[in-house]
Write a structure and sequence with these properties.
2-enoyl-CoA Hydratase, Chain A, domain 1, 12 helices, 2 domains, alpha/beta, 10 strands, eight-stranded mixed β-sheet, 305 residues, two-stranded parallel ribbon, globular
């Protein structure tokens, strides 16, 4: 019998997708073309990440990991061309009252808080255990900062997430839907802090920077502006410098600039995005040795309970 199995294995092509699929491939039930209406170019406008995801994955279906915990972050399993993939993305808009639990100020989507960082850490670790490739969908303004956030150990948890990603040893892909800002860009699949990153995509709305230009200008010149005002000096020259700094930040964070300088590998049209996801999933499963037998996978059983 063993000889028969070996002979059968020799007959299997080096790569045949049907051996790695958990289901038959299916197009999203919701039209991919609607992405242009769902993803605002205005960086300050909200949208539903779940609606974006539903236009990209098979059958518009997903299996969410720890829903309700860390509401600023989506983590879950999806199918791309019938293959199992982990998905992580930033949710936008105002977060539920009382969140983050460690502070009195309201939580805002796009920013990372304690629970969201913990959830991403756990999910990446489980994906690594089950050999599931991961796609990051990034639209983040950064990690929560300040004395309260530091007491809540956000920096340490973020560092732990970077370590988990580095140890995961599964292929990862990043899609910067809009904003990739500060340390959050690094810890959410950014190639600068992720040796598992195989490819990074941008869109026409992509911006990557340390911080927003207006924020940088205020941080740089706010104290000097107060001193000049108190001493009776004109503020116009200082305002001009602030505008120049903000414009420079803007110019060096445009999608074309990001692509030319290697911040992203390619800028793609939203209607073509699913094709890239399918190519990534197919490439990730070309190595049979890296595939975990389905009956040994832990993550789906954790999600189902």
């Amino acid at each position: 019998m063993l000889d028969g199995i070996k002979e059968y294995m020799r007959m299997i092509p080096a790569y045949d997708p049907k051996f790695f699929r958990v289901a038959e491939p299916a197009e999203p039930q919701l039209p991919t073309g609607e992405l242009y209406n769902l993803l605002p170019m205005n960086q300050k406008s909200d949208y539903s990440f779940d609606d974006i995801l539903a236009r990209l994955v098979d059958g518009s279906e997903n299996m969410e990991f720890r829903p309700g915990y860390g509401p600023e972050i989506y983590t879950g399993l999806v199918k791309i061309d019938g293959m199992l993939v982990g998905a992580i993305g930033n949710r936008q808009g105002l977060l539920p009252k009382g969140y983050p639990e460690y502070a009195e100020y309201p939580g805002i989507g796009g920013k990372l808080y304690r629970q969201g960082l913990i959830k991403m850490n756990e999910f990446v670790t489980h994906c690594a255990r089950d050999r599931v490739p991961v796609i990051w969908f990034q639209d983040t303004t950064g990690i929560d900062v300040g004395d309260i956030a530091e007491k809540a150990e956000l920096l340490g948890i973020g560092q732990s997430l970077v370590y988990s990603i580095q140890q995961a040893d599964v292929p990862m892909m990043l899609v910067v839907l809009r904003k990739g800002s500060a340390a959050a860009h690094y810890i959410m699949g950014g190639p600068t802090a992720n040796r598992q990153n195989a490819f990074t995509l941008g869109t026409a709305a992509t911006e990557i920077y340390v911080m927003h230009g207006e924020t940088a200008a205020v941080a740089t010149y706010a104290r000097r502006a107060i001193k000049d005002k108190d001493s009776g000096k004109p503020l116009e020259p200082l305002a001009q410098k602030m505008n120049e700094m903000a414009q420079k930040y803007y110019d060096t964070s445009r999608p074309e600039y990001c692509a030319r300088h290697g911040f992203v590998d390619e800028i793609v049209e939203l209607k073509a995005l699913r094709g890239y996801l399918k190519a990534f999933a197919g490439a990730s499963y070309q190595n049979p040795k890296s595939i975990c037998p389905r009956h040994q996978m832990l993550l789906p059983r954790i999600i189902k309970g």
